[in-house]
Amino acid sequence: MAFIKEESEEKRIVEVFSVKQKDTEEQIKMEKVVLKEKEEEDQYFITGEKSFCCSQTEKTSTRKRAQEKETTSYFTCLRFGKSFNQQGNPKDHISIHTGNKTFTCEQCGKSFNQKGNYNKHMRVHTGEKPYTCPQCGHSFAQKAHLTVHMRLHTGENLYTCPQCGKSYAQQGNLKVHIRIHTGEDPYTCPQCGKSFSQHAYLKIHMRIHNGERPFSCQLCGKSFTRKIGLKRHMTIHTGEKPYTCPQCGKSFCQHGNLTVHMRIHNGESPFTCQQCGQSFNHKVSLNRHLRTHTGENFAPHGNLKVHMRIHIGGNSFNCQQWKNVSTEKETLSNT
């Protein structure tokens, strides 16, 4: 009996200890909850951020967690599995599959299946450019355009030509560059059939046919089909000659003229006659030479003027030193 009594005594002690231990854990847990609520009240007082408490799990979360819970995706596209967290988004997404374009521009009649695309389009008419470059101040209507523009400042070129290694900041520029290697000219003039690799080049070419000259000189009124033509023309008025020969120091207003001049020094003659093989450093010189093969008389206008002096008796070239009169410029040069 003593053994049984001792067992009962031990059992009773264990049970009491267990109960006391349970009471202690609950008390500690309750104290933690009270302290947590106090901390949240202090946090709300300092930051204004209110917390939320779940009565079932006794887990607390801030307003941010509650908002994240509210934005949980609960709409899923059965075709592609794309999920949405707002009722408006799945409607716009479904219109992609149905082709329904419910947003129509009242100014130009263009339609869109998403309101976001419609809002972007409206900036074309309003001229709104809300995205501004922090470095140069250039503004853009779309954020994507600003992102691409920023690569000009950072020097980031993501798109590289697989053939020559040249890189570009925009994929479209790389696509145009590839046409140099492929020889593709997808833009054709409807009047003469000449083809171009870029639509901008075709647009400039069309001015030859329609007579459009949008770039005019403010000093003399002469107009040009290209802006660079006006820029070159302005050097006539300003007298500016920014292109200088590194060998003789002679200056030119156009880079093309310097290129032609350099052939004097390097002996380059890129224009060759296909009939006799004679080469020239100017294309105009080749054209004059070709007339000797065709039998044209007095091809250069200057030669005809010299010849006419024979009939009219003009003595244009008077040598004052030798008192010798000549009707031919070549005769004067030989005296």
From TrEMBL:
<keyword id="KW-0862">Zinc</keyword>
<protein>
    <recommendedName>
        <fullName>C2H2-type domain-containing protein</fullName>
    </recommendedName>
</protein>
<comment type="similarity">
    <text>Belongs to the krueppel C2H2-type zinc-finger protein family.</text>
</comment>
<dbReference type="GO" id="GO:0042802">
    <property type="term" value="F:identical protein binding"/>
</dbReference>
<dbReference type="GO" id="GO:0001228">
    <property type="term" value="F:DNA-binding transcription activator activity, RNA polymerase II-specific"/>
</dbReference>
<dbReference type="GO" id="GO:0005634">
    <property type="term" value="C:nucleus"/>
</dbReference>
<feature type="domain" description="C2H2-type">
    <location>
        <begin position="215"/>
        <end position="242"/>
    </location>
</feature>
<keyword id="KW-0805">Transcription regulation</keyword>
<keyword id="KW-0238">DNA-binding</keyword>
<dbReference type="Pfam" id="PF13465">
    <property type="entry name" value="zf-H2C2_2"/>
</dbReference>
<keyword id="KW-0804">Transcription</keyword>
<feature type="domain" description="C2H2-type">
    <location>
        <begin position="131"/>
        <end position="158"/>
    </location>
</feature>
<feature type="domain" description="C2H2-type">
    <location>
        <begin position="103"/>
        <end position="130"/>
    </location>
</feature>
<feature type="domain" description="C2H2-type">
    <location>
        <begin position="159"/>
        <end position="186"/>
    </location>
</feature>
<keyword id="KW-0677">Repeat</keyword>
<dbReference type="GO" id="GO:0008270">
    <property type="term" value="F:zinc ion binding"/>
</dbReference>
<feature type="domain" description="C2H2-type">
    <location>
        <begin position="243"/>
        <end position="270"/>
    </location>
</feature>
<keyword id="KW-0863">Zinc-finger</keyword>
<dbReference type="Pfam" id="PF00096">
    <property type="entry name" value="zf-C2H2"/>
</dbReference>
<feature type="domain" description="C2H2-type">
    <location>
        <begin position="187"/>
        <end position="214"/>
    </location>
</feature>
<feature type="domain" description="C2H2-type">
    <location>
        <begin position="75"/>
        <end position="102"/>
    </location>
</feature>
<feature type="domain" description="C2H2-type">
    <location>
        <begin position="271"/>
        <end position="298"/>
    </location>
</feature>
<dbReference type="InterPro" id="IPR036236">
    <property type="entry name" value="Znf_C2H2_sf"/>
</dbReference>
<dbReference type="GO" id="GO:0000978">
    <property type="term" value="F:RNA polymerase II cis-regulatory region sequence-specific DNA binding"/>
</dbReference>
<dbReference type="InterPro" id="IPR013087">
    <property type="entry name" value="Znf_C2H2_type"/>
</dbReference>
<keyword id="KW-0479">Metal-binding</keyword>
<comment type="function">
    <text>May be involved in transcriptional regulation.</text>
</comment>
<keyword id="KW-0539">Nucleus</keyword>
